[in-house]
């Protein structure tokens, strides 16, 4: 891919990000609908082998305009799973994952971090990306996803860079989103990470087969 093509894709992504930000904001403005959608997504997840077989759940702390994740975090901790949450270490695109302690209140382990979002504080234990644990499920945020697995993030590349550093094991990559965020086409480049599954309020999509389960 030459520089002109890549620049064109960057511009296309910017336009799509703006459009999808409006779509998600409009959906989340109806708090009852957004809360119900989040519950449906969580229920489908908890019943799935994705969750049952995972020893480590890597999950984000949701912003007000993302699908709610606190109930998933709390249930995973209660189920004895390791719950790892991202912390930004460099605003240019670097992050780490830190494990929450099931014995401590969640609020005591979080602080306002980069971009004004909640992150784990330094009292939590960092996962060594060079010795990443097996049987890990990544539940990833984003603005838009395709049934075939393509993802549109917010443009800083935190997850793409982190996942590229994992060598000895292959975590399961799954989007966690509202169904209104699933679209037909997303411009992409070679280093964009693809999803294996999409977890949403309509159930779970296997991106290999485009089939829903858990409806």
Strand content: 15-25%
Q: Point out poorly predicted stretches.
A: none
**What is the terminal-to-terminal distance?**
40 Å
Please describe the biggest sheet, giving its number of strands, its sense, and whether it closes into a barrel: 9 strands, mixed
Shape: globular
Helix share, percent: 25-40%
Q: How are the SSEs placed, and which strands pair?
A:
Blueprint: H1 3-29, H2 31-46, H3 49-52, E1 56-59, H4 70-78, E2 82-90, E3 94-99, E4 110-112, E5 118-120, E6 125-126, E7 136-140, E8 144-145, E9 151-152, H5 158-164, E10 172-176, E11 197-200, E12 203-206, E13 211-213
Parallel strand pairs: 1-2, 1-7, 7-10, 10-11
Antiparallel strand pairs: 2-3, 3-6, 4-5, 8-9, 11-12, 12-13
Give your account of this protein's structure.
- The chain is α/β, with parallel strands linked by helices and 215 residues long.
- It is 29% helix and 24% strand.
- It is built from 5 helices and 13 strands.
- The strands form 3 sheets. It has a 9-stranded mixed β-sheet with strand order 6-3-2-1-7-10-11-12-13, sandwiched between helices.
- A hairpin with a 5-residue loop joins strand 4 and strand 5 (118-120).
- The longest helix is centred in the N-terminal third of the chain and has 27 residues, at 3-29.
- The N and C termini lie far apart (40 Å).
- The mean pLDDT is 93.
């Amino acid at each position: 891919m030459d520089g002109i093509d890549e620049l064109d894709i960057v511009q296309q992504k910017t336009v799509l990000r703006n459009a999808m930000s409006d779509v998600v904001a409009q959906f989340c403005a109806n708090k009852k609908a957004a809360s119900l959608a989040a519950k449906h997504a969580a229920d489908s997840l908890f019943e799935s082998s994705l969750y049952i077989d995972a020893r480590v759940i890597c999950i984000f702390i949701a912003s007000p305009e993302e699908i709610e994740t606190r109930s998933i975090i709390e249930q995973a901790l209660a189920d004895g799973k390791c719950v790892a949450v991202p912390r930004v270490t460099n605003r240019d695109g670097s992050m780490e994952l830190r494990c929450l302690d099931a014995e401590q209140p969640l609020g005591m382990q979080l602080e306002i971090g980069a971009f004004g979002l909640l992150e784990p504080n330094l009292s939590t234990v960092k996962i060594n990306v060079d010795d990443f644990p097996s049987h890990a499920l990544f539940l990833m945020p984003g603005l838009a996803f395709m049934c075939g697995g393509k993802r549109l993030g917010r443009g800083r590349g935190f997850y793409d860079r982190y996942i590229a550093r994992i060598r000895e094991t292959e975590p399961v990559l799954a989007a966690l989103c509202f169904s209104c965020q699933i679209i037909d086409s997303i411009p992409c480049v070679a280093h964009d990470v693809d999803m294996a599954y999409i977890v949403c309020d309509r159930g779970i999509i296997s991106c290999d087969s485009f089939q829903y389960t858990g409806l």
